[in-house]
């Protein structure tokens, strides 16, 4: 059976994606910063490995311990909802280190074996926030838009070697730990001058009738991984599909 290595499997989209690939008979390397066996069903097709995508030694260890990887899913990421004025540069660096450079570093570590075998797929999870400018998301969006641009070029670089690269764009998913994780980082809050704008953003979310579920993203990653005709950019989630269609 093919093997998928997925980053950020402790919760949310990564956890659901690991479940779905296991359910469909694949071997799964579920990676987490703090490995926990109990979040996934026990299986002799499951390997849970420690991986922090911002740590080069951790990446090297995890990729070596994983063995052959047919599909690499770069899902690990952190959120941030604040205007640039409310974003300390060390925080911006942390976001780019995880979302952007973490994805690049994992991809770089995974490519050699795929290139040598002449097959493999890299699936990068970004976001529909990259489809149009939104308030309070300048830094987060930039970190994900960079991954979009990187992946589009990567697909060209790797095509001659039989390796595909695809982008899955989830919409807003209130049921993952993403919002809580982002809020925990935002101890200083949003600058007062932007309070009304922030209220408007929260009010518009409260009216959203469409959202993304973790299963939508897992299905999107599955399609990106298994369907050679999958488009380069795949919106995942009812809101994501609607947003992408509205922009066409
Ligand atoms: N939820 C949304 O509305 C939404 C929408 C569009 C795109 N996305 C993107 O979808 C992806 C998954 O988000 P989610 O909603 O499932 O959020 P989540 O529940 O917070 O999951 C994020 C995962 O990334 C992991 N992670 C964070 N920093 C890491 C690092 N340095 N190394 C390895 N793993 C790390 C977290 O692990 P720990 O448990 O160790 O923190 C967690 O497993 C992210 O890339 C996010 O940007 C989310």
TrEMBL record:
Pfam families referenced in this protein's UniProt entry, alphabetically: adh_short (PF00106)
Top-rank lineage group of the source organism: Bacteria
Cross-referenced InterPro entries: NAD(P)-bd_dom_sf, Sc_DH/Rdtase_CS, SDR_fam, SDR_oxidoreductase
Keywords of this entry: Oxidoreductase
GO molecular function terms listed in the Swiss-Prot or TrEMBL record: oxidoreductase activity
Similarity remark: Belongs to the short-chain dehydrogenases/reductases (SDR) family.
PANTHER family assigned: SHORT CHAIN DEHYDROGENASE, SHORT-CHAIN DEHYDROGENASE_REDUCTASE FAMILY PROTEIN
Protein name listed in UniProt: Short-chain dehydrogenase
Organism: Consotaella salsifontis
